[in-house]
């Protein structure tokens, strides 16, 4: 049975009541206050085994109290709550030694689980607060989809763990990587980004590890690689899914041994970098296709972070629009604002190019239109432009099965208007996908069901049953 005294500070009486009920049912003793002064009096007198505090209180900000708590009682876990659900709130909570940050509204079961874990674990270490983060917020948005990203990032700031960032083009993968560097332990070291897709395959090893004079034709002098340039800092390997297999083998050796040799060199070079990898591809699928090393994947995928596409966080669009208009104004463009009806249009758009596409649109609106207020008709005009349909994101989505299926389903649901499709949608969709999949594989294997079953990764009897059930035509070839 759990035990301990929980000190709760929140000026919202409804929140205090809910927390009191939930924590009391879980077996804890609860003391409630609406201000920071009383909370500090309790803590300074030695009361409480854990603190739960809102950030904004009538008399003092929790971030002003937290350093004093950490100095007086560094073993006391503090859980910070906030309705100001920004990235910087999560970062400040982490920097100042909070055990956990919870954006409001939060799940009570999750809260009680965190409380139990905090009381059971060894007391957390105190974080370095010598250099607090400033207010140059790298992320905009308070949607639930982004809150989990903020919380994961906050936990990672004081570590050197390798991170794998996965997300569609334009979701901000490099922004996340830079935040991990700028607010982390290696902020005083260099941040080096290298895009694997932009380097010719025969030059990737030289680009990463450097080369010696005369090591290949055109190598007229020694050149340092990105690992050497990033020493003591962070190396972002962007578009890691485009790295050729030979370079993957060398990268794996570096991650395992902590050293490398330059192209044409013989002396091992020690490396001290934090690796962050990013991709918009499904690496598991590349592994199955023999295009990516599974052992390298597990080395890189220590902490996975998935960035949601903009269509999964449309509630952030108004904040993003205001932010991009503000940035444009700071660059000398006229001040603009957007009507509510225009924002509604943006929320309904699919944004194949994600945040990057939205930013480009806002910059065009600020630069090309004389109106101070952007109307819904202007948004219709922008969204009808060919440029919007031929963005980088949509070009990628056109070849993406998940995106194609999502577009198909969106159109399918649209055919029913306000009604819903008939029941049984799951099995109907699976059948529509299974038929062409099995048909194409059988054609590729020239009707050889043993090879087809192996390629699909299913039992031969299962494949035969699918062929019968789906009425797939098997055409055997003697080629």
TrEMBL record:
UniProt-listed GO biological process terms: regulation of DNA-templated transcription; regulation of nitrogen utilization
Pfam families, per the entry: AAA_lid_14, HTH_8, Response_reg, Sigma54_activat
Signal peptide: none
Subcellular location: Cytoplasm
InterPro entries the UniProt entry points to: AAA+_ATPase, AAA_lid_NorR, CheY-like_superfamily, Homeodomain-like_sf, HTH_Fis, P-loop_NTPase, Sig_transdc_resp-reg_receiver, Sigma_54_int
Positions of the Response regulatory domain: 5-119
Function (record text): Member of the two-component regulatory system NtrB/NtrC, which controls expression of the nitrogen-regulated (ntr) genes in response to nitrogen limitation. Phosphorylated NtrC binds directly to DNA and stimulates the formation of open promoter-sigma54-RNA polymerase complexes.
This protein's name: DNA-binding transcriptional regulator NtrC
Biological source species: Pseudovibrio axinellae
Taxonomic classification: Bacteria, Pseudomonadati, Pseudomonadota, Alphaproteobacteria, Hyphomicrobiales
């Amino acid at each position: 049975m759990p035990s301990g005294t929980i000190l709760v500070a929140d000026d919202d009486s409804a929140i205090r009541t809910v927390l009191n009920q939930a924590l009391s049912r879980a077996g804890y003793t609860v003391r409630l206050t609406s201000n920071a002064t009383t909370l500090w009096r309790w803590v300074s007198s030695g009361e409480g085994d854990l603190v739960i505090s809102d950030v904004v209180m009538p008399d003092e900000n929790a971030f002003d109290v937290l350093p004093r708590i950490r100095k007086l009682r560094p073993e006391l876990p503090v859980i910070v709550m906030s309705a100001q659900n920004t990235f910087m709130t999560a970062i400040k909570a982490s920097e100042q030694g909070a055990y956990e940050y919870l954006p409001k509204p939060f799940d009570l079961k999750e809260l009680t689980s965190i409380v139990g874990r905090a009381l059971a674990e060894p007391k957390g270490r105190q974080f370095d607060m010598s250099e607090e983060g400033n207010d140059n917020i790298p992320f905009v948005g308070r949607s639930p989809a982004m809150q989990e990203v903020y919380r994961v990032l906050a936990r990672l700031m004081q570590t050197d763990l390798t991170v794998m960032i996965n997300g569609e083009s334009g979701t901000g993968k490099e922004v996340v990587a830079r935040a991990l560097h700028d607010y982390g332990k290696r902020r005083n070291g260099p941040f080096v980004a290298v895009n694997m897709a932009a380097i010719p395959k025969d030059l990737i090893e030289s680009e990463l590890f450097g080369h010696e004079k005369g090591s290949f034709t055109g190598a007229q002098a020694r050149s340092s690689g990105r690992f050497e340039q990033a020493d003591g800092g962070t190396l972002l390997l962007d578009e890691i899914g485009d790295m050729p297999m030979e370079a993957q083998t060398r990268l794996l050796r570096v991650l395992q041994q902590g050293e490398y040799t330059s192209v044409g060199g013989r002396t091992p070079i020690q490396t001290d970098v934090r690796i962050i990898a990013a991709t918009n591809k499904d690496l598991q699928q590349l592994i199955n296709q023999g295009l990516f090393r599974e052992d390298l994947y597990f080395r890189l995928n220590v902490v996975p972070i998935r960035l949601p596409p903009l269509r999964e966080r449309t509630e952030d669009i108004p904040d993003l629009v205001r932010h991009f208009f503000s940035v444009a104004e700071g660059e000398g463009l006229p001040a603009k604002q957007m009507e509510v009806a225009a924002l509604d249009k943006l929320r309904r758009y699919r944004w194949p190019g994600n945040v990057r596409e939205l930013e480009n649109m806002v910059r065009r609106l600020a630069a090309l239109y004389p109106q101070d207020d952007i109307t819904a008709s202007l948004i219709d005009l922008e969204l009808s432009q060919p440029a919007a349909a031929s963005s980088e994101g949509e070009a990628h989505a056109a070849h993406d099965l998940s995106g194609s299926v999502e577009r198909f389903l969106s159109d399918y649901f649209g055919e029913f208007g306000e009604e819903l499709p008939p029941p049984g949608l799951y099995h109907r969709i699976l059948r529509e996908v299974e038929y062409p999949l099995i048909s194409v594989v059988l054609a590729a294997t020239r009707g050889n069901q043993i090879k087809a079953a192996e390629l699909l990764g299913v039992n031969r009897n299962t494949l035969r049953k699918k062929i019968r059930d789906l009425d797939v035509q098997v055409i055997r070839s003697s080629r």
